[in-house]
Specification:
This protein is of the alpha+beta class. It folds into two domains: 10-43; 46-214. It contains six helices and six strands, in the order αααββββαββαα. It has a six-stranded antiparallel β-sheet, with helices on one face. α3 packs across α5.
């Protein structure tokens, strides 16, 4: 969405209050005034859209015992953490960052694990590559990468599966469903480390279920 520069005459008292609130929210004066005016005239800005989408993601993931939710410093960021059943119970971090553009580009999902355990990093990379192979069989145009113990997945709506823009709640449901499926597959994979064939089968089962329920929209 394009922005332009406008001059406004405001009282010093109002500006002081706006600046104080903007500082507490981690945003700028201009952005806060833009949001206030947008809400007043019932207009949805990209920041409002991103915040509402991520609120739904947080609510859906937060309703599961396996996730802890952390809201990002900006309207388009959210993190979720999930413990992995491995030595010292390491924590997997899921970071969602949305873009202002909207349909069909939503943003990016990043998965990481803070650890120096070489065996754990090797298992994680093996899982990432397995997940990418499985996803490629169901959705050849998905874009993801894995390196240095991190997984990155582009969040983009498939225009052949989606007609027109989707409601913010629906977008939140799609994003949370993908993260939930990934996390479920990851835990099943680690549970079956001693049985590679079963680990691979459980990973594909988790993705197949997600794909069937989401309709391949994301």
């Amino acid at each position: 969405m394009d922005k332009a520069v406008y001059s406004l005459v405001l009282s010093e008292g109002v500006v002081a209050k706006v600046d104080k609130l903007a500082y507490s929210m981690g945003t700028s004066r201009s952005n806060l005034i833009n949001q206030i005016l947008a809400e007043y005239v019932s207009y949805e800005t990209p920041e409002m859209r991103m915040r509402e989408v991520l609120e739904y993601v947080g609510q859906l993931l937060g309703g599961r015992d396996s996730f802890q939710i952390t809201q990002g410093q900006s309207a388009g960021m959210l993190s979720a953490r999930s413990a992995l059943a491995f030595k010292y119970n390491p924590t997997v971090k899921y970071s969602v960052e949305l873009t202002r553009g909207g349909f069909p580009e939503l943003g990016e999902l990043r998965v990481s694990l803070r650890t120096q355990n070489s065996a754990l990093l090797l298992y994680m990379m093996q899982f990432y590559k397995l997940w990418m192979r499985v996803e490629a069989r169901y959705m050849a145009d998905s874009e993801s990468s894995a390196e240095d113990g991190r997984f990155t997945r582009r969040l983009r709506l498939r225009e052949d599966a989606v007609k027109g823009e989707l409601a913010n709640k629906t977008l939140g449901e799609l994003i949370s469903a993908y993260i939930s499926a990934f996390d479920s597959a990851l835990k099943a994979y680690f549970y079956n480390l001693n049985d590679p064939e079963k680990a691979a089968a459980e990973t594909e089962n988790a993705y197949r279920l997600y794909f069937r329920e989401s309709g391949g929209a994301l």
